[in-house]
Amino acid sequence: MKKRKWFSMLLGTTLAASLLAGCGNGSSSGSNNAGSASEAPKEPNKKVEIRLMAYNAESTRATYLKLLEEKFPNIKVTFEFVSLDNFNNVLNSQLQAGQGPDIIEVGGETRLLANAGYLTDLTGEEFTSKYADAGLTPYSVDGKVFATPLQSWYEGIFYNKAMFKENGIQVPKTFDQFVQIHKDLAAKGIKPQTMGAQSWEPMMKQSIGLVNNDFYSKVENKEFDQKFNAGEAKLADAWLPSVEKWSRLISEGILTKDMLGLSYDQALDEFATGKAAMWESGPWAVKTIMEKNPEFELGMFPIPGSSEGPGWLIGGPGSALAINAKTNHKAEALQILNFTATEEAQQALIKDNAGSSFLKGVDVNLGDVYADCEEAFKAGNVYAPWTAAWVSGNPIVEGYGKSLQEVLAGIKTVKQALEDADKINDTMRETLN
Question: How many Cα atoms occupy the beta-carbon half-sphere of 419 within 13 Å?
Fold first, then answer.
């Protein structure tokens, strides 16, 4: 009970109790908790309902979900989308009640969920061995696997190729060049970059892109994340030079206060309709962009660093699928995860949400949109410390991102934003201990 009490406190403080609406047991009949991925359901002629709660929209899983329907006629997968801003609070309230979905899409909160006893240990399942270690590490605790990865995720800077060509703009290879093209475009009356800063995510990710280039790329900083987890290193010390350099986008008027009122969808629309030359996001946005503007010449480049190089993308292993430890349909849930560990399922996932696969032997052609990212991909320059290494990743980056919103509003300094993140890390570590 002690673990569940602190988990409720950690994940349940940011949102109102009204988010508890809709909590219910995702199953009422079918097999018991015993079983493995190879077992057949207890009642093969009766459909068993599996509830899958996710923070990525159903459209990003459409082909995969259709495939599950075809492969498992005895299983009805009910897809329940909850936006990322509400996800942890809604999920936690259900898990606290001993209910929750059968299958959970997890990310940076995996270790917290596993430590709280909410996830099924998948270590002994044969399908886990089909994934590369890089895809399993973010979802493992003390050598035990608690979730298996879907496709990788990554974010870079989408840009309007036609607009760049018309204005003689080249893809930047350094951060100084990145800043300069904003100024050059603005001088021509073109909005250089749009950002849905109503969300705490985009500034958080873009600033860490420069940290990847200027900090994590150095051999001497290889062990930083482990020291950070242990409380032996601070972001306010290590990251400050990089984040202060990134904050030129704020101090030089490139990112503006009015963006705090701009949503993700509004920023996407501005970019897709040619009202801005650049926008940071990932492959999940491509379909919507092209639907809004079928003639759009779309490209993506990595976030550049202080020195010329291939640049870095924010990302790595994306979300994963875990099984609720209290599911009434463990055998069926394991069947779904077992099938997900096939090339057929992986290609179906990638079709609606482009990314590489962590399933061994699966090749993916990402296409021309990402041609400018090729060197970064080849160099392995894709990293997000909060999912790859940090024990309490999601709460830390959420706090950091929200503090950056205050930096944009002129309320806080960059150093204070990093200190806020350090305080959250300290609090989480003390609570876990």
Answer: 6
CA distances in angstroms from 168 to 10, 164, 194, listed in the order given: 49, 6, 20
Q: Are strands 103-106 and 148-149 parallel, antiparallel or unpaired?
A: unpaired
Question: What is the SS3 assignment for 211-223?
Answer: HHHHHHCCHHHCC
The CATH number of residue 135's host domain is 3.40.190.10
Q: Do 158 and 261 belong together in one domain? A: yes
CA angle 313, 315, 318 (to 5 degrees): 155
pLDDT, tens digit, 9 for 90 and up, residues 173-207:
999 999 999 999 999 999 999 999 999 999 999 99
Q: Quick one: the chain helix, strand, coil %, rounded to 5? A: 50, 15, 35
Torsion sign, CA atoms 63, 68, 73, 79: negative
My answer on whether 199 and 259 are in the same domain is: yes
* Per-residue confidence (pLDDT) for residue 80, from 0 to 100: 97
Among 32-36, 52-56, 141-145, name the one with the lowest average pLDDT.
32-36
